Amino acid sequence: MKKSKFWDFCLVIVIVVEILSCAKGDDCLSEERDEFTGKVLYRQHQHLHIFPVIPTDAVKAHLQCNEISTIPQNAFVDLVYLQKVDLTQNKLKTVSETMFVGLTNLKTLILSNNSLRRIESGAFVHLPSLFLGPKFQ
Length: 137
Description:
Layout: H1 3-21, E1 33-37, E2 40-44, E3 60-62, E4 84-86, E5 94-95, E6 108-110, E7 118-119
Parallel strand pairs: 2-3, 3-4, 4-6, 5-7
Antiparallel strand pairs: 1-2
């Protein structure tokens, strides 16, 4: 197995474990929030169906507890400062190979409590800073 495919496989395992370990609804107990403050975007409990525009200087994006089912191509292209994206409890079904292109500094990606059915090979190769945990180093 090639080294990059091995790391993709390990990351998929980490994400699957995270998805299976979260009890439905636990991550959406906080109240509705819609603001951009201190380089952190909060768009929680907004019933969003369409992926929102994230400011280019954002460091974190909290998008949990919405109804986002797809992320458009190039949604993250100019977001070089983004280090954390929380998409907990949305309606994502697929993680495409190009979904996270541009997130070169992303360290934390949370996809728990979605309807993920497919993670394309190479979906995480564009995330060089993503931390896999000590078991996968």
